Amino acid sequence: MLLLDDRKRKILKAIVDDYINTAEPVGSRSVARRHEIGLSSATIRNEMADLEEMGLLEQPHTSAGRVPSDKGYRVYVDQLMTKRQLTADEIDCIEDSLKARINEIEQLIKQASAVISEITKYTSLAITPQMNRSVIKTIKFILVEDDKVLVVIVTNAGIAKNSMVKIGTGVSLDSLIVIANFLSDKLTGITLEMVDIESLKYEVERIMTRDRHIIEPIFSGVEDCINQIASAEVFLDGTANIFNFPEFQDMMRAKKFFSILNAKDILSAMLFSGIRGEDIKVRIGIENEIDELKDFTLITATYSLDSEIIGSIGVIGPRRMHYPKVIASLNHIRKVINREISNLLGDDVEGQ
Predict the structure, then answer these.
(1) CA angle, 89 as apex, 88 and 91 as ends, to 5°?
(2) Domain residues of the chain, as ranges?
(3) What is the pLDDT of residues 158-206, one digit of tens each?
(4) Which segments in the chain show pLDDT lower than 70?
(5) How far is residue 323's CA from residue 245's CA, in Å, rounded to a whole number?
(6) Under CATH, what is the fold of the domain 136-230?
(7) Per DSSP, which regions of 156-307 are E strands?
(8) What superfamily in CATH does domain 88-129+232-351 come from?
């Protein structure tokens, strides 16, 4: 941890606060005028030069003002920023949004992404959990046409996925009932990760006396539903918010930002990397492992099921981010998500 004397701490905090609010390089006169530091402009200027030598400030172009470096922002986040409490209206906004008729985890995470973008005014992103441990509650076959069956699987997390399969014409309804009853008996109440498709298929082949050609497509539909439930989905909200910040009036920088948002593999990597470690993770500029994010700040918060971290939600924006507000917002919303997931699953969580 970099240790600064009290004078440098006050000046660095003042510069970061001002730059976050104005997006303009900050000069010594501005610091002396706006903040009660009790130092002359000349003294502040000397201290700013020292902070620049320490790598905490940068001087863009030939401007007399300074801006924080990534290292300066890090010291600010870790040591200097004033922690912020959410307002009553912000808390009500989060609570109301995440209590309104939500009956599945995907819907909860999607709504959480929307509300965090609304409160912070940045772009939000969230990843749904990989629900390998969710329990199969219902499995159904619906004969849609003479040659098509809709396979439907519902889990205890309220997630329902379906897959349409072709079984050919002239199939006996009794054959479908045999497979449906068998799978319902074998799969209801077990977790997705415990499903062994090949073993189940082998057992069905032994009891089927006719229409055995439907086994393969039916099990393909079951496997597709399970894969849909187990795979994580990424939600994005407030993508246009980036244009509210002057540093993104540069179309090349804006284009780079949107190229990141269009790459699902990058987004997933960003969010999954935030799952390991601390509850709130702040990655500033060069601290991001992904090259495309070196010009941005990414702040992520994890959410949990039964004390196990299962996903994350975050905010991406300029390095000149309002860190206290974003951190406070994400910290509160992760707690609400944890509570609502427990409420959503109820006794099923304890039964796993």
Answers:
(1) 65
(2) 6-80, 88-129+232-351, 136-230
(3) 788 999 999 988 888 899 999 999 999 999 999 998 999 999 999 999 9
(4) 1, 62-63, 100-101, 274-278, 346-352
(5) 15
(6) Enolase-like; domain 1 (3.30.390)
(7) 160-166, 234-237, 280-284, 296-305
(8) GAF domain (3.30.450.40)
